[in-house]
Amino acid sequence: MTSREIFLLEIVATSPGDRLLPFVVAIVIPALIIRAAGTVKPDRCLPLPLGLLPQLLGCVLVSLGVLLVYKTISLFATVGEDTLAPWDPPQTTRFRGPYRYVRNPMISGVLFVLLGEAVLLGSVPLLVWFLIFLALNVVSMPLIEEPLLDRRVGSDYANNKRNVPRWIPRLRPWAPVEHRRKEDEP
In a designed cystine with 116, which of 47, 62, 166, 168 is the match (CB 3.0 to 4.6 A)? Predict the structure, then answer.
């Protein structure tokens, strides 16, 4: 990579626009898909108690996703020096907030929102967008971002990978050994 390419990448990666990425992926693109496809079927032909389950599940998924995205952006705003941009992975690992439950809380949050939107609205095109976004991340995380973090951060990140899942949050937060209280140690 030339110095000009690195410079341009740094400008793009450090711009305020990188915080818009989750919004674009989870709100703008789905809105464009719904507008183009015109296929929203929230009123499924299920009897009433069962008919509410897809809406309830969709709302729960969207709420969980929004919470993860919010907590992650808040952490970046208050603690982080890094950006949210996938082309500029973090220089350090974080063992705070949502990163104690899942390695990629921003992506997980957006995935929960996308799946929740597809379920809530009964939209097959939104489900396809969710699957495309999932596939892109399933390929790019282990092939691009994680090797970069392994090289940049080293053993801390390797320890994090062994203890914190990539996509689906843990039920209990993980605490690295150096952050545990003395009475918690065996």
Answer: 62
pLDDT tens for 18-65 read 457 788 889 899 999 988 987 677 666 667 777 788 889 999 999 999
Question: Which pTM does this prediction carry?
Answer: 0.76
Are 123 and 34 spatial neighbours (Cβ–Cβ below 8 Å)?
Answer: yes
| CA angle in degrees (0–180, nearest 5) for 179-183-186 | 90
What confidence tier does 6 reach under pLDDT thresholds 50, 70, 90? very low
Domain 17-175, CATH class in plain words: mainly alpha
CA atoms within 13 A on the CB side of 15: 11
Q: Please measure the distance between the N-terminal and C-terminal CA atoms of the chain and give it in whole angstroms.
A: 48
Q: What is the largest CA-CA distance in the chain?
A: 62
Residues 40 and 122: beta-carbon distance below 8 Å = yes
Instruction: Pick the closest to residue 25 from 87, 96, 117, 88 (CA basis).
Output: 117
Residue 57: which H helix or E strand, with range? Answer: helix 48-78
Taking the domains of the chain in order of start, what are their residue ranges? 17-175
